[in-house]
Write a structure and sequence with these properties.
single chain, alpha/beta, Spore Coat Polysaccharide Biosynthesis Protein SpsA, Chain A, 3-stranded mixed sheet, 12 strands, 14% strand
């Protein structure tokens, strides 16, 4: 919001923030753009059909439910299995409420297992929904059923946090070099605007490498402070690697956005390292250790551009959960409105430039404060 109380257009602030800094740079060490002559690989790379990191290209795999087709413009990907209709209203409904009419691609429960009212809701909101079925050896030790890829899952049993990257890779086949993709956690996310609105029409965009990752609040959390993130990096990649990133921001694996070539490259890095390192065999169920290791050690950087880290409260996704973390001292946390001062007079969550956050992630950590607002009718149509 401006000082007058008016809502400010977020597009300019996000576009400015998208220039970004790598994790080892200070704001005074902003990267210089590369000469145009070096920006050729991804333009060609984007035109090459996707070859999975493991297994052959799918030819007879799963298709969307209810006859819905991919539009092939921009897309939002998420694993959304076993949730009730209200969770979809918060995620899907808020996107539609703020004018996003392109693809929302979700892995959902098969129709026979859907919660009441969900099938009709998915149809009404034109969700590109895929039936998600797995064979499991335990509650979080599964692999895709043969029907999804059209052949046996080439990977071993693993956690859902790891399985979902194979879904994303599969869905990427339907998009073009000018598309943008936003990969998200489902349960704890809602929208306050169109996350792609600042980019302009799909067909007018240049083909470029643009990968955006989103950090948690650095004042209360870094890798070394967090018992979980330090465990995920240290146990999986070694204590020597942990020591080098101990004071670095925590990059959330539940929100990653980028241009089509950047997301293709990102998925290749994530999947290839999951396949070789296999952190779940070391007792690490999360995918976030990979995200932090690969970002902070430069694996997402390329000759045509580096990944951009957005600090909490900047960019498209505002990840707020750490600000109310269980281990955060009481004098360092409080309500979003009176302590953090990032809500406007209408209850919307703000970025630090005063604009409304287009996407709010981990909002459930402030459930006592935000649930009434989220379900008030301001961000989704309760009648649908």
């Amino acid at each position: 919001m401006s000082e007058s109380g008016e809502v400010v257009d977020a597009s300019a602030g996000i576009a400015a923030a998208s220039s970004g800094f790598s994790s080892f740079e200070t704001p005074k060490q902003q990267r210089q753009p590369l000469p145009n002559s070096n920006r050729k690989f991804f333009a060609e790379y984007s035109k090459i059909p996707i070859v999975p990191v493991l297994g052959p290209p799918p030819t007879s795999g799963s298709v969307p439910l209810f006859g819905v087709k991919h539009k092939g413009g921009d897309a939002i990907f998420a694993l959304a299995c076993k949730y009730p209709k209200q969770y979809f209203q918060r995620f899907v409904g808020s996107l539609r409420q703020f004018g996003y009419d392109d693809d929302i691609v979700l892995a959902v429960s098969p129709p026979a297992q859907m919660k009441p009212g969900l099938e009709d809701y998915l149809k009404a909101t034109n969700v590109v929904a895929y039936a998600f079925e797995v064979d499991c050896l335990g509650p979080d030790n599964c692999k895709l059923k043969d029907e999804f890829l059209g052949y046996p899952d080439p990977r071993p049993h693993r956690t859902f946090a790891n399985i979902r990257y194979a879904l994303y890779e599969y869905w990427m086949r339907y998009y073009t070099e000018q598309s943008y993709i936003l990969i998200l956690d489902f349960r704890d996310t809602f929208f306050q605007g169109n996350p792609f609105g600042y980019l302009g029409p799909v067909k007018s965009r240049p083909v470029r490498y643009d990968l955006q990752v989103y950090a948690e609040n650095y004042k209360v959390k870094n890798i070394g402070k967090c018992v979980f993130n330090s465990l995920w990096v240290g146990r999986c990649f070694g204590d020597d690697k942990l020591e080098k990133v101990r004071d670095k921001p925590v990059i959330c694996s539940g929100s990653t956005m980028g241009s089509y070539p950047a997301i293709r490259y990102y998925l290749k890095m994530m999947l290839s390292h999951m396949d070789t390192v296999q952190c779940w065999k070391k007792g690490i169920e999360s995918d976030q250790g990979y995200q932090n290791y690969l970002y902070h050690f430069g694996f997402f950087n390329t000759p045509e551009g580096n990944a951009t880290m957005n600090p909490q409260g900047y960019g498209v996704v505002n990840t707020i959960g750490a600000m109310n973390g269980f281990r955060v001292p009481a004098d360092q946390k409080g309500p979003l409105d009176t302590f953090w001062k990032i809500r406007d007079n209408d209850g919307f969550v703000l970025n630090y430039d005063g604009t409304r956050s287009l996407c709010v992630h981990q909002w459930d950590r402030f459930a006592d404060e935000l649930t009434k607002f989220v379900d008030s009718g301001k961000i989704y149509d309760k009648a649908v």
